[in-house]
Amino acid sequence: MKTIGLIGGMSWESTIPYYSIINEYVKEKLGGLHSARIVLYSVEFDEIEKCQSSGEWERSGEILADAARKLELAGAELILICTNTMHKVFNQVQSAISVPLIHIAETTADQLAKEHIKSVALLGTKYTMTQDFYKQKLIDCGFTVLIPDEDDIELVNDVIFNELCVGIFNDGSRKEFSRIISQLSKRGAEAVILGCTEIGLLIHPEDSELKIFDTTEIHAKTAAIMSLSD
Length: 230
Fold this sequence. Notes:
The structure is a single chain. This protein is α/β, with parallel strands linked by helices. The termini are close together. Helix 2 packs antiparallel against helix 3 and helix 5 crosses helix 10. About 50% of the residues lie in helices and about 15% in strands. A 4-stranded parallel sheet has the order 2-1-3-4, sandwiched between helices. The chain contains 10 helices and 8 strands.
């Protein structure tokens, strides 16, 4: 079994499901008292968010690269950044280590392709929805990517940072997300990517008229599969 390194804490609310999903998969496959080999480095999210909002992406990349190096030194044989937005600095982090860094958008694209999805809605932070570092990965794989209008981009972003990242889950916000998903369905989306690791804590299959692709679940399960592969 390979040791999985997790760069978490962005937010810690959504890091918890990573630990659970990986261990549940290992238990399912190996049975008995088996559990995953995991090393966690949880960053201080306030520091990361300040880098995001001020555009200091290189500085945030240095923080995550340092975390990745420490995980590798601790024995990690594959590493995950447990958030979608910070994949903006994926290349900077990968260049700092010699073990694989598993890209959350690439694992999601693989799952979309398996289910023959062509047009997909994307919800996430404003950075994930509007910048190319994430969307372009999907577009390069042949998917049409639809995002909300400008006002709803701000709404989704505000809910993520002001509610979900601090453990607040409002029915009103859930209804707003469901409305946005419905609008994107009318524009031609066949499925919706929950492209922020916190959104899956709010939106469940019964809240969406589109099939949900939860990036937290996909990313974590991919790591678990890789940890058990030869």
